[in-house]
Amino acid sequence: xxxxxxxxxxxxxxxxxxxxxxxxxxxxxxxxxxxxxxxxxxxxxxxxxxxxxxxxxxxxxxxxxxxxxxxxxxxxxxxxxxxxxxxxxxxxxxxxxxxxxxxxxxxxxxxxxxxxxxxxxxxxxxxxxxxxxxxxxxxxxxxxxxxxxxxxxxxxxxxxxxxxxxxxxxxxxxxxxxxxxxxxxxxxxxxxxxxxxxxxxxxxxxxxxxxxx
Length: 213
Known about the structure:
The chain has 8 helices and 13 strands. The chain is α/β, with parallel strands linked by helices and 213 residues long. The protein has one domain (50-212): Phosphotransferase system, sorbose subfamily IIB component (Fructose Permease), CATH 3.40.35. The strands form 4 sheets. It has a 7-stranded mixed β-sheet with strand order 5-4-8-3-9-12-13, sandwiched between helices. A two-stranded antiparallel ribbon has the order 1-2. A hairpin with a 2-residue loop joins strand 10 and strand 11 (180-182). The longest helix has 21 residues, at 31-51. The protein is globular, with a radius of gyration of 23 Å.
């Protein structure tokens, strides 16, 4: 029975390695083999995308430290701000655009629901100056709350790590560390984010030490 099953594959198993059978050696790139290669490539690209998304939570969204300090730390040229309130607030957008443009960055204001598609588009590999090479851009994604990050993850955005600073004190929130205050809803959102395999850390600036939650 084992030999009959094996004969339908493009190779024979011998010990711990595979040897392509003589009758199929001219046709090794079967649909089965191609699908394996495509799956491996997709996994590699997904991991690369996750690593190239610098995601940070800050109630203030865009300000001087974000535009200068974090840019110096990660060398990104594009910032994405997924926030429903800001997406419909032209006045505050104009104020933040001044900071973004002064730092030489490209800025994108978008609703949380539309953010996953925009991020996937902006993160697509670009042609390099080197012939035949492509580069994956680094994006900085700044969110107001953990809930926004949770929605991005649920929307299919692969995020390796998210950092937090400036979640201000409000009624019902308790101090975690520094300027980070959370309530039970925030902590539940953090747990949901971590459940997707995303690391979560408190970090004041791009060069300061991280404290993982």
